[in-house]
Design brief:
The protein starts with 6 loop residues before the first strand and ends with a strand. The C terminus is likely disordered. It is globular, with a radius of gyration of 14 Å. The chain is built from no helices and 13 strands. It is mostly beta strands.
């Protein structure tokens, strides 16, 4: 069991996904999401380094926000642009896409806007969650990810052996 407020990160280990990629996740419930937020991630650095870009689907302020996570032994989060001004709802499908240095955020297949950052250039797609004291607070379903060039991965529980769950300890 993770300690309170551990950040958990799931990263696609195989197949290797190109730098231009997406991650998509559905919200099954928003009950308590503000305390146990999470969402899709792109360009997750490695199984031992949590550098990545993440779309934080928080049902409180600042609602939906794109961040860069910098893992230097402790996690730092840098907001990329302004918050999107949208609160997530049960049933929403959110997609984070990166092409070059441009991010596009989608809700239900409709673009909500773009942001730009050039810090991280490679990595794998995945998802994150603030696990809280137990794993019972997950509010997401139907994770999907892939290469914008066409390769897609659609892991469903039970996770295949090539799908890794990375836990960012003490962060």
């Amino acid at each position: 069991m993770p300690a309170a407020n551990d950040w958990c990160l799931g990263r696609v280990a195989a197949p290797s996904i190109g730098a231009d990629q997406y991650a998509e996740i559905a919200i099954s419930s928003v009950a308590g999401l503000g305390a146990h937020d999470g969402g899709p991630c792109v360009r997750i650095n490695s199984t031992t380094d949590g550098d990545c870009y993440l779309l934080d689907l928080d049902d409180g302020t600042p609602d939906v926000q794109l961040y860069r996570a910098d893992d230097t032994g402790s996690l730092g989060f840098s907001a990329i642009g302004a918050a999107f001004g949208i609160n997530p709802n049960a049933g929403d499908v959110w997609k984070l896409e990166i092409s070059g240095t441009t991010f596009t955020v989608y809700k239900g297949g409709v673009s909500q806007g773009t942001r730009s950052d050039s810090t991280l250039s490679t990595g794998q797609p995945g998802f994150f969650a603030n696990c809280g004291a137990t794993f019972t607070n997950y509010q997401f379903d139907n994770f999907n990810s892939g290469d914008l060039g066409g390769a897609s991965t659609t892991p469903r529980p039970p996770w295949p052996p090539a799908y890794q769950l990375q836990r960012l300890l003490g962060r």
